[in-house]
Write a structure and sequence with these properties.
Layout: E1 2-7, E2 14-21, H1 26-37, E3 42-48, E4 56-60, H2 63-76, E5 81-87, H3 95-100, E6 104-111, E7 115-121, E8 126-133, H4 143-155
Antiparallel strand pairs: 1-7, 2-5, 2-6, 3-4, 3-5, 7-8
Organism: Thermoplasma volcanium (strain ATCC 51530 / DSM 4299 / JCM 9571 / NBRC 15438 / GSS1)
Protein name: Adenosine monophosphate-protein transferase
Pfam families: Adenosine_kin
């Protein structure tokens, strides 16, 4: 049994969503979700087929993000996983739509932090066991920290 932590490429000023699904239709449906939800965002999607041709399927409108998404899927190398990279947008803008996509079984991570995917390397392929998203906490928020958090959410428009 071989378990490995694989670093994901999260280009500057971008966010990553990693999940799993079950059908070749995934890449087109996720592309439609991203494009119609946020027409001006830069993005890329890569999806790893688990059977048939077993190709990496991809869509996107930003070459840097497309190349990074494909490289991330190569690093994970687990069937039916997908990576979405976003620039000029955030996962919160599409996460519910992605989770509601018929083919999507679940989400492993949605972040702008450094990200490691924990994989099990099997005889026929890899499987995702979990993620390491960012770093461990170093304390508990104070009342002042709570105020700053609440003020920030209102400043950036996510709370009224």
């Amino acid at each position: 049994m071989d378990i490995e932590a694989v670093d994901m490429i999260v280009p500057n000023d971008s966010n990553i969503i990693v999940g799993y699904s079950h059908f070749i239709k995934t890449v087109e449906d996720l592309n439609e979700i991203v494009h119609t939800s946020m027409p001006k965002c830069r993005y890329a999607i890569a999806f790893s087929e688990a059977s048939g041709d077993r190709l990496i399927r991809y869509e996107g409108n930003d070459d840097e993000l497309v190349n990074a998404a494909i490289e991330n899927i190569k690093r994970i190398s687990a069937g039916h996983t997908f990576v979405i990279l976003l620039r000029d947008a955030y996962p919160i803008n599409i996460l519910n739509a992605v989770k509601s996509c018929q083919e999507v079984g679940g989400i492993f991570a949605a972040t702008a932090n450094s990200l490691k995917i924990i994989i099990y390397k099997g005889e026929n392929g890899n499987g995702v066991l979990g993620v390491i998203d960012g770093m461990s906490p170093v304390g508990v928020e104070s009342d002042d920290d709570k105020k700053k958090r609440r003020d920030l959410l209102r400043k950036i428009g996510y709370k009224q």
